[in-house]
Amino acid sequence: MTYVIAQPCIDVKDRACVTECPVDCIYEGERTLYINPLECVDCHACEPVCPVEAIFYEDELPQRWAAYAAINAEYFEQPDRGQDHPLIAGLPHQTSDKKDIAVFAIRKEEAADVDRWFPS
Ligand code: SF4
Ligand code: SF4
């Protein structure tokens, strides 16, 4: 089993999860981040810090995002990881309401240098 990053991360990418992961198994694509299922140690550290609740234990993925288990895994089978998984690349642009994310102020300092939602 593994943790999976689903649709809410797309075009948000604040990278709070990357900071938490003890084994550095969360990788950045162009529009979203991906968890490598072969490297994830199921520690749960990333899930509670995601400001848009994009991270799920594989068994607990909402049905509407069930495909994201395969999307995360298949990303690491691509020859060019500079490109998003084709299903991600084909999605329309997604926006998240800043006020929904800003309540996670504890992440503000860590994310300030990389996140357009948390300007310094
Ligand atoms: S569950 Fe732990 S090991 Fe897996 S991606 Fe999250 S922080 Fe990394
Ligand atoms: S914390 Fe959530 S929104 Fe931020 S990069 Fe990780 S999965 Fe994406």
UniProtKB/TrEMBL annotation:
CC cofactor: [4Fe-4S] cluster; [3Fe-4S] cluster
GO MF: 3 iron, 4 sulfur cluster binding; 4 iron, 4 sulfur cluster binding; electron transfer activity; metal ion binding
Signal peptide: none
UniProt KW Transmembrane keyword: no
UniProt keyword terms in alphabetical order: 3Fe-4S, 4Fe-4S, Electron transport, Iron, Iron-sulfur, Metal-binding, Repeat, Transport
Matches recorded under InterPro entries: 4Fe4S_Fe-S-bd, 4Fe4S_Fe_S_CS, 7Fe_ferredoxin, FdxA_Actino, RnfB_subfamily
Domain 4Fe-4S ferredoxin-type: 31-60
Function: Ferredoxins are iron-sulfur proteins that transfer electrons in a wide variety of metabolic reactions.
Name listed for the protein in its UniProt record: Ferredoxin
Lineage, broadest ranks: Bacteria, Bacillati, Actinomycetota, Actinomycetes, Kitasatosporales
